[in-house]
Amino acid sequence: xxxxxxxxxxxxxxxxxxxxxxxxxxxxxxxxxxxxxxxxxxxxxxxxxxxxxxxxxxxxxxxxxxxxxxxxxxxxxxxxxxxxxxxxxxxxxxxxxxxxxxxxxxxxxxxxxxxxxxxxxxxxxxxxxxxxxxxxxxxxxxxxxxxxxxxxxxxxxxxxxxxxxxxxxxxxxxxxxxxxxxxxxxxxxxxxxxxxxxxxxxxxxxxxxxxxxxxxxxxxxxxxxxxxxxxxxxxxxxxxxxxxxxxxxxxxxxxxxxxxxxxxxxxxxxxxxxxxxxxxxxxxxxxxxxxxxxxxxxxxxxxxxxxxxxxxxxxxxxxxxxxxxxxxxxxxxxxxxxxxxxxxxxxxxxxxxxxxxxxxxxxxxxxxxxxxxxxxxxxxxxxxxxxxxxxxxxxxxxxxxxxxxxxxxxxxxxxxxxxxxxxxxxxxxxxxxxxxxxxxxxxxxxxxxxxxxxxxxxxxxxxxxxxxxxxxxxxxxxxxxxxxxxxxxxxxxxxxxxxxxxxxxxxxxxxxxxxxxxxxxxxxxxxxxxxxxxxxxxxxxxxxxxxxxxxxxxxxxxxxxxxxxxxxxxxxxxxxxxxxxxxxxxxxxxxxxxxxxxxxxxxxxxxxxxxxxxxxxxxxxxxxxxxxxxxxxxxxxxxxxxxxxxxxxxxxxxxxxxxxxxxxxxxxxxxxxxxxxxxxxxxxxxxxxxxxxxxxxxxxxxxxxxxxxxxxxxxxxxxxxxxxxxxxxxxxxxxxxxxxxxxxxxxxxxxxxxxxxxxxxxxxxxxxxxxxxxxxxxxxxxxxxxxxxxxxxxxxxxxxxxxxxxxxxxxxxxxxxxxxxxxxxxxxxxxxxxxxxxxxxxxxxxxxxxxxxxxxxxxxxxxxxxxxxxxxxxxxxxxxxxxxxxxxxxxxxxxxxxxxxxxxxxxxxxxxxxxxxxxxxxxxxxxxxxxxx
Length: 933
Prior knowledge:
Blueprint: E1 4-9, H1 10-20, H2 35-51, E2 55-59, H3 67-71, H4 84-99, E3 104-105, H5 112-125, E4 130-134, E5 148-152, E6 161-163, H6 165-172, H7 179-187, H8 202-212, H9 215-220, H10 227-247, H11 269-279, H12 282-289, H13 299-303, H14 308-315, E7 342-346, H15 349-362, E8 364-371, E9 381-389, E10 392-397, H16 407-413, E11 418-421, H17 424-433, E12 442-444, H18 445-452, H19 460-468, H20 475-478, H21 495-523, H22 526-546, E13 548-550, H23 552-577, H24 586-596, H25 615-621, H26 626-645, E14 658-659, E15 662-664, E16 674-676, H27 688-695, E17 697-698, E18 704-710, H28 713-722, H29 725-732, H30 737-746, H31 755-767, H32 774-781, H33 786-799, H34 802-817, E19 819-821, E20 827-829, H35 838-874, E21 880-885, E22 888-893, H36 898-910, E23 921-926, H37 929-932
Parallel strand pairs: 1-2, 1-4, 2-3, 4-5, 7-10, 8-11, 11-12
Antiparallel strand pairs: 5-6, 8-9, 9-10, 13-14, 13-17, 15-16, 18-22, 18-23, 19-20, 21-22
Helix pairs in contact: 1-2, 2-4, 4-11, 7-8, 7-10, 17-22, 18-21, 19-21, 22-35, 23-26, 23-27, 25-26, 28-34, 28-35, 30-31, 30-33, 32-33, 35-36
């Protein structure tokens, strides 16, 4: 029997898994980041299942210095500290390895690379047929031989890669694999802080090696080289030799081992079951133990369920060293092909009438649409799928049988029937565009999961695999070579495959809802879902459908003015710099500011050695030189022009002549709506340029825009939550809150408050909910130092003692519970609230303070939107809600409806979420958005 050894680079695999999921980490119910553990475990499982090695071991680095550190103290010195979540995960990796009965190797003074290299070459010499080094680190290429290969695990669905000799030579553009070491000697390695020769990159290095074979050969022929190349090699030859020495993997590590210790054996079930349960790895647990696995069950419970685990354990009793891991079933997910389904095609009016009658009796069904385009205004409806029971469903082909559409109208408009779906807003838009008005409760499984697990992925395929242990039919099976935004041609799709694909989506939505419904009640998030998010789906659908008109002539005027101002600023900057340069190049800008003008003695640099010229750095430098403030203004106006003035006309739909933004309900951690395609929420209102853009948004002819804005809503929510008497009384007495705050801070009468003092108080008022610091306040005001800013904050807290007391109580609550919540009960989990890293912990504390305030404001305006939309429909008014921008709503009001609409909008907003603090709603109307604001 062939002997195959797999050596895993444990640290590299853990890092890779952690950062692969950095934007959407896997967080368990205790708030622990388990991305590294999940990715690591998944890789181990993949290797065992798919490749069935005879021998396997995992190798880790230690924190002890190595010979490389001795000869080059800067070795790896530029690396960031290991993320705290990864530090916490490292001991758990040993437990996972132990559960699989896989040996773990580490040795002080040697890196994992050296141990793997030593073992790989010894295994090749001592009879192993194949050895695979499992690592994403391409430096291992220097070790590859006929028997030894690199195994690079799959990443983001790309599939695993196996690199042999030819692959290494091709990747590095070299003639022999040992020249990998020479390449690193010449080019260096920024990750390990191996210097190499400055100015020599991979292409130059490959050419030099082709000519002179090695670093030593290049140095020996330095006189033949020309110009800068010769100079660089002469000046840095010792550095190149050092780099080569640092890059070379050792093959003589004195590691103790016995090949029999590496032989793959049965896992320790009593250890592995509870581990997977503890980490909440449901999908992995089911792959190992079957569907009986639950994160709430112990290993004894799993073993007693009478599943395949018992049979395999009994079968293997008495085997001391089985050849491979027999516990793991080869099929990890159920599929359409392996599942007993009852999917039917509805082709006649009689069959459809019978189905509609049955669904009406049941009172609930899931549905999904199949269309030709992602844009609902361009999409044609191909068909509709329905399901009311797991593994059952119906497919109605509407493009070929349009007469079947009309009988569905009564079903979807029946308000007593609950409709389910995944990403329902899109499907509701499609049906609306095809004459089907959907009424009654609509529950979106994507939103339900986002409320329950806000940090996880919410797409249907991911949920089906993780929660239903089912791998759905992929879209790419129907359309293998279609790019995003392309019109889909269903005439080329097999009808049976289309039916299975379509009905499966409705079926899975039904099954997911059966899980989510009880979880919403158990989690305390039912009110957030049923009262806020679910009713809003239809409201947003109608808003997106309506869109808003754009005055392109007004934008053309703005473009001309902006272009003139941008050109003027650029000319002024060039004059002050005494030279022309690329203002959009951070590198060239850094050279001007710090090398030429020398604005800072020791300017900050990026990891690549380039000067930092981000907005924060430039804002701090602005008082030092006029050129910096003009660069900031140039950036702001250029972004405004490209993002809005140039882009908005392109976003006008040619069919409707209106702009249709898309609203995401749960894209933000606080519950605020997010606008995109295009984003209409970040158009500035305080600058003349931003105001000119708002002026370009207009109503249809004869109608009027109405803007309704919550006044100082977050401060009012802070007053209600903190119950600070000073803040509450100021609002109850209808005082100018910023002047009132200034009077208290500066201990003067309100009538004596200056404009600057009011501005300072306003900055503090708006900054407090975001945990503003003395440094932040001084930076924003730009006129006071940090000490004076701290005095102002201290005085603010002294005058409003309920606020710091509230802030501290929220932080303590977050530490105890692991989450904070809004008045409505929406939760945000804060995994870093107990971090030992002060910077990370402080950021979590600021989020803890801000989320109940900003999240409550988000809940409030969402409920107001639903109330307004419902009132407009109930009263059969033509007016429609068009936009939501933070605390503001924009409506397009029909002629003669303004008095009634103003009344109902004010009432809906004031009654959306009662607070123990007076609310104020500002209403304005006009011929454009600016005039109405």
